[in-house]
Amino acid sequence: MTSYCGAPPHPYDWIGRWNFDPVLLVALAVAAAVAMRSSHPRFLLASVGILAVTFVSPLCALSVALFSARAVHHVLLVAVAAPLAALAFPGRGSKHLGIAFVASTATLWAWHLPALYDRALGDTAIYWLMQLTLLGTAIWFWRELFAAPPVTASMFSILAMAQMGMLGALLTFARTPLYTSHAASTLPWGLEQVADQQLAGLVMWVPGVIPYALATALIARRVWIRAAGTA
Fold first, then answer.
1. 190, exposed or middle or buried, with CB in 10 Å at 0-12, 13-18, 19+?
2. Fewer CB near the terminus (10 Å): N or C of the chain?
């Protein structure tokens, strides 16, 4: 199967599989230029850097071969690039945190349904629909989260951490292959498809929840500092 990032690479050639799509490079350059003019350039530049890693570096091609690499790709997108972008454009208030949480969670889970996932890997337009909806809803969620009152923000940060962990657990304990896109692409890497799928689940279950745990800890620290200052 040939996806936007090309054919599945082999262990001997994946490191050279960079993606120099001119449209993508122009979009990243424009985003970097916007970042330089924003009020929080470091956050937005860091977010653009993460997007470059996910779409330009060999990780793009590797995610066609290995579902575990795709899990890394998605975690970087929704739990690293998205919160950095949200920090670059802080909200003045949080009015729709619950809706944003439902939208981002539903989007993440929907794109991991086998039928939708396989279509995205085989069609460039659907692939970019997947990426943009994952990123867009995640930025919306993080922006609402960062602007919410501490107790509410902590609750939804824990819920977000739980849903990521639950999705990871479902993939980890699945006993049958779920995605036809990876039916043969994992074998050159010495992995059975189920093993690769379980590894992907572990990526989402363990490192995937770390950004949400950090957000929860930072919110708690902010509350503690505020309470200490008023004591």
1. exposed
2. C
Domains of the chain, by residue range, sit at 14-230
Using alpha carbons, select from 46, 51, 62, 57 the residue that is nearest to residue 14.
62
Q: Taking the CA of residue 211 as centre, how many other CA atoms within 13 Å lie in the half-sphere pointing to its CB? A: 19
Determine the Cα angle at 52 with ends 4 and 136, to 5°: 75
| Contact residues for 64 (Cβ-Cβ < 8 A; gap 6+) | 1, 3, 5, 6, 7, 8, 9, 121, 181, 185
Query: Quick one: CA torsion of 140, 138, 120, 34, rounded to 10 degrees?
Result: 70
Eight-class DSSP state of 16: G
